[in-house]
Here is the input.
Amino acid sequence: MRASLSHADLPDLQGVLVHGYGHLHTGCVLLCQVGTDRSKAARAHLGALGLTNVETARQAKGEAIEAARRKSFTNVAFTHTGLAALGVSPATLDSFPREFVEGMATDARGRLLGDVGPSHHDSWQWGGKTNPVHVALLLYAADASALAAHRAGVMGAAEAAGLRVVKMIETVTLPRRQEHFGFRDGIAQPVMKGSRDSSPYQGDEIAPGEILLGHQDEFGETSHVPGDNAFGRNGTYLVMRQLEQDVAGFWRFCRANAEDDADAIRLAAKMVGRWPSGAALARFPDKDPGPKEKVAHGVRAADDNAFQYSSDMAGARCPLGSHVRRSNPRDGFAQVPKDSLTMVARHRMIRRGRPYGQPLGGEAEPASYLKVLEDASRFGTDRGILFACFNASLERQFEFVQQQWCENPKLAGAVNGPDPLIGSQRAPCGPVGFTLQGKAGEPARRVLGIPRFVTVRGGAYLFLPSLRAVRGLGEG
Ligand code: HEM
Here is the structure.
């Protein structure tokens, strides 16, 4: 039986692990370096940070109550070089897994993740070899003025304690919870069993040890704890990547390969695996039912996370190579649906990314993007997702999904092409493209010459410790 998180552990977890502060529409990440000879002061400051306590968030069933009571939150995470700069003992530093120790910005890892060409770490704005990051402070607030006040306080105190802010990324909330290409995001999400009173995620539970360190995972094994329990237990790994989205390029490509605007939106949806409203293609293969449609179990199609793929093994409804089907193939990966779910459960992650930058043309929706394409350059290009996800094993979860499923040009029936939305569009031979499997009796359609729509601008692997460990850091 799947293990459940004990309520006794909840007050020890940083809040972002249990909820994404969806009711707090503004946020910002401060990426910092620890000043030379300032490790003691920085440690004392970080240890004393007023971190979110999950227990208080849980009490706020109606999130509005919590928002009114407390308008801003901080969470904190560290890279391996950051822990070293803060003076964590060599024995503890050595106990971390290799991928965390090495970090994201290595040539080998770059090839594995598809961080090549313009996405190579040499070009990153932060997190590369020449501009490493030690500490990430994740700030959330109800509105712009609350964020400005919160940020000023956090930055002032951090700088006084010897932390230098090397990069600040302000995140935004787009209408209907969309990402910049114009699709509703943050719908499918596993929830750690026992971490919520009731699961809003339609039964999509995973064992806590898939995310948290020192807990039982899906195989009943205890996830590896770096250092001792006081330091490592109830921590997790945070993957942070600044992914710039070429929104104009994406929609230009879709329109060039479609008969009209509606057909362009259909092609885009086939590449994503959901419609702009969020409705899953697995249930609605031909037409976006819109934001009000309900599905069988009573939730809106736009929030649906209870669909599967085993009745669509050929990909006629949701293409096998689409982004959501690659990144979580659900029960459609192995011939036996139950085996598929067991296997896929080892490669899940909790996503907490948010968009940054202003939407193309000001209106965040596909129909208006298509209208401004001719003149798109005047709206700039600085927009994307500050991708963030949590997992207990960087290698088995994030890296596996990115490399084996998203970047793999031959994944389960996909014919020579990686993830059309986020992939690096490389393949060892032959033309690279995306396949839309046809309905029974219909031929498949190949769309070729997909450019790269997403460029990595920065990134880091971070350790997000328990609250107890953060306090311990302060106490030296
Ligand atoms: C600019 C980059 C990206 C964009 C625009 C994007 C967009 C989306 C959208 C629109 C969805 C559907 C909404 C949902 O199910 O919540 C989705 C789902 C998902 N994405 Fe991404 N994504 C990006 C990067 C990534 C990366 C780097 C990964 C991991 C390697 C990833 C993993 C996932 C997963 C696991 C799901 C949920 C699939 C499911 O459970 O059905 N995404 N993404």
User: Anything to note?
Assistant: Residues 179, 181, 183, 185-188, 243, 245, 272, 274, 323-324, 327-328, 384-385, 387, 398, 401-402, 406, 421-422, 454 surround protoporphyrin IX containing FE (CB under 6 Å). The first strand starts at residue 26 and ends at 34. Residues 144-160 form the longest helix (17 residues).
